[in-house]
Amino acid sequence: MRFKDGITERNVIVKDGADMFLPLGITLGLYVILFGNISPGGGFQGGVLVASAVLMLYLGYGFDTVKGSLDNEVMRVLEAFSLVAYVLLGLVGVVVGFNFAFNHFFHHGQIGDLLSAETSVFMDYAVAINVSTGVGILLLVMIGMLTIDNPKKAAHAAVTEDEPVAMPEPAEEEGAA
Predict the structure, then answer these.
(1) What is the pTM of this model?
(2) Would you tell me which of 37, 54, 142, 158 could form a disulfide with 117, CB atoms 3.0–4.6 Å apart?
């Protein structure tokens, strides 16, 4: 079988698998987020599923593609926005004279409807944005530690694509026999 330069049979299989499962994973994550208040799941679980897209991109296309596809600054701003939105939604209950996170926006929710949980639905969406961006950033940091741009920075990496990384020998203490 002939492949393009730099692509091996293993890479084709992994890339095709990533192409197939990435949209499925994101769709499942969004479903869990949207319907978490009326079925098992919610913002945290769905956020982790959506953040797994970072890992899927890395497995299929490598760190350079992930780094080029995702903007760390945008992810940090979204994470901060979601935290502020969560606190503000919770404080509205305090402002109107009730407890933190009191459900006060909708008083006509029907059990089983998407907005039946009232204010907590929007707070759950804020949690989903926070978790998906936070876990996404953590995955980027962990994946970035595996790249071998600088041997000193990559002392913890075990293997590169070409050859094993030479780990520095521990310095011998003076006077040790």
Answers:
(1) 0.70
(2) 37
